[in-house]
Here is the input.
Amino acid sequence: MPWTGRVNRCKVVCVPAAPPHADLRALGDAFRAARSNAGFSQEDFASEAGMDRGYVGRIERGQHNVSYLNMLKLAKAAKAPLGDIVAAATSAHGSQAA
Here is the structure.
């Protein structure tokens, strides 16, 4: 439908972000540790993985539920086995894989 020049009026409501899920936070911490161990800044790490720095930051803060394929990219960029990163996240949080 073409633009008609009418403007819908709506109210914007700001809602505080929910705290990150503990398991996502643990996974983010594990990816941050792998990145640091590989000697990357967050920006260089994101570039190496072919991702946006903000996206990687949200993963590291546990604010994004990262997909398996993106976890593989991040692990490859960190030159670390994905299994080791997931194991570190699981043992750090004390959770069990379902």
Summary: The chain has a mean pLDDT of 86. The two ends are 47 Å apart (CA to CA). Helices lie at 22-37, 42-49, 53-60, 68-78, 82-93.
